[in-house]
Amino acid sequence: MNVTGVGSTGAADAASIASSNGMGKQEFLTLLVTQLRNQDPLNPSQPHEFAAQLAQFSSLEQLVNIAAQLDAQQATNLAMIELVNASSALGVLGREVIATGDSVSVGESGSADVTFNAEAGGRAVVTVFDPETGEALATVDLGRIEGGRQKHTLDAESLGLPAGRYRFAVEVTDAQGEAIPVQTLITGRVDGIRYGTNGPMLVCGSLEIPLSAVVEVNTQTQES
User: Which of 39, 73, 88 is the C-terminal boundary of a domain?
Assistant: First the structure.
């Protein structure tokens, strides 16, 4: 007598089939019932096999539910972060901020201030670049500086730099000519806030600074 059915092997794979096909618990139970009805009478599946598969599928279902809860929690956390960032951005309106960046503005006065942090003292050289082409337009040797926060005013007129916005870089070397880590900074007074896909942007004149780049906020507000 030859009888063809699902057999115990098919029952053992039920949870894998259900999970891979995205079935729910009810669909999985329907699958098991179908297997019971069509199993080989001469080689029936054992009850403990179905119990084990039910337990396995239940564990998988719990993991899926946990993952969904974590996703929901992450979305809530992101919303809270955006709310905090928006509130923080409003709190710096009219204040002077210092942020990481490499932009320098030359005003009508013909001067430009560059700010940077040097990990240690050494010889500092500032190079000003065209922001569009990356061409080096001027180089200024500041001589030896101390470590820490530095602010230097460049005579843009003597350097042949008309009013506008440029990029700058600072190289600091020790007595052996080894490079010392430097962090370039930008300074601006916040005139407004623009909200975009990358979060709040602080509008400082013609410059826009990401809120996430701010490292210091001056407590003095803009004079009316």
Answer: 88
Query: Which among 81, 1, 92 has a CA at the least distance from the CA of 41?
Result: 1
Of the candidates 125, 121, 140, 139, the one whose C-alpha atom is nearest the C-alpha of residue 180 is: 121
Quick one: tokens of 35? 């297997």
Q: What is the pTM of this model?
A: 0.56
Question: pLDDT at position 10, please?
Answer: 46
Compute the distance between CA of residue 79 and CA of residue 81 in angstroms, rounded to an integer.
5
Separation of alpha carbons 179 and 96, rounded Å: 31
Q: Which amino acid is at 52?
A: A
Q: What is the tens place of the pLDDT at every residue in 102-147?
A: 998 888 878 888 999 999 999 999 999 998 999 999 999 999 999 9
Query: Is the domain of 138 the same as that of 84?
Result: no
Q: Please indicate, yes or no, whether residues 21 and 118 belong to a single structural domain of this protein.
A: no
CB neighbour list of residue 159: distance below 8 Å, 6 or more residues apart = 128, 137, 138, 140
176-177-181-187 Cα dihedral, nearest 10 degrees: 120
- The model's confidence at residue 214, banded by pLDDT at 50, 70 and 90, is confident
175 has pLDDT over 80:
yes
How many structural domains comprise the chain? 2
Neighbours of 57 (CB within 10 A): 22
Whether residues 16 and 41 share a domain: the answer is yes
**Residue span of the structural domain in which 11 resides:** 7-88
